[in-house]
């Protein structure tokens, strides 16, 4: 059974207190594991004198051979000096030229773990290494090579009698932890979700797209059709970054509003390249939606606020909106919490958490407006997390967050919040929080020059 991780100290993107020489030695030793073994060079008799480095590497053998030769003849005759033609004839065929040192170094550095400390430590080795890892083109290749960014931590809504704000909490090991102050939230609005290294906040009738790594932000006013009024009660939204990582501050913004008296959900998509909102799309709905959306392929899914646990489906490519229901084969007990998932094969999955049990369902098909799924796993949370005996608390467990890229779910219990990786079932207790509130996981590549 997996065990909880202990609390970690604060993060630093530089090496722990040590000399620059130790940092360079550590990085060099780590990178040597990616290099091939040293090639075997031809002997001197094959037409080439061994270099000084080869003599050092084989010094003991050279002395032994000399001792044996001297014992056979106290005064060996000098070997004849070969002619230039003989040397040329005996020389081995020329090998194909290798890439220059920077090309080899880039290939090695690309394979470093995508953790915040990897490239900063490598940059301490030499000026050449620092130049390579600081190059914007290399950083793009680094992100493309690893594809899935590490989960740096999560934001959660903190509040007291005086004010409320969103606080960042790191979850990585000590050497990779980002200080919470580094990701101080720039707006007093409501956090709607994080994706592709960006966070989306709603402040009145304005959306704020924020990059916590660079600090850049962009404010976008909602279209008039989605502006808050007595008919519009609440907003939901999602942000999609530039998956190619081509640079710049490019994104697509999706906003959804619920019109109470008309019983409709309306949405629109904003493109930062054009600076315009698209046409308004809508669908009839018997209830509002809530929780951050989950991206599966080109579709976003928000949970409908109803005990049957249906989803609002928005197809970003086709610009369509629909409400889909869960099949009766997926039981949703009274008081259960439902969460949309992205399965390993890129499909839509469903998690149902009721009391101290979690069921994971893999989607097989969406037939019409009904999600049909097959049960893949049942998890006893009491046994997995070593929870104490049940109390009179009606809310024994709740889903409070989910990261689609790492397939990690955040579950609130009476003793705190746990982060569970749904494939390995490895977990970490990330908070002693006794309040049920939203947790917003944040994953991104934290590299030099970001």
From TrEMBL:
One Pfam family it belongs to: F-box
Top-rank taxon: Eukaryota
InterPro entries: AT5G49610-like_b-prop, F-box-like_dom_sf, F-box_dom
Domain F-box protein AT5G49610-like beta-propeller, chain residue ranges per copy: 193-448
F-box domain mapped to chain residues: 98-140
Chain intervals with Polar residues compositional bias: 10-31, 52-70
Protein name: F-box domain-containing protein
Organism: Panicum virgatum
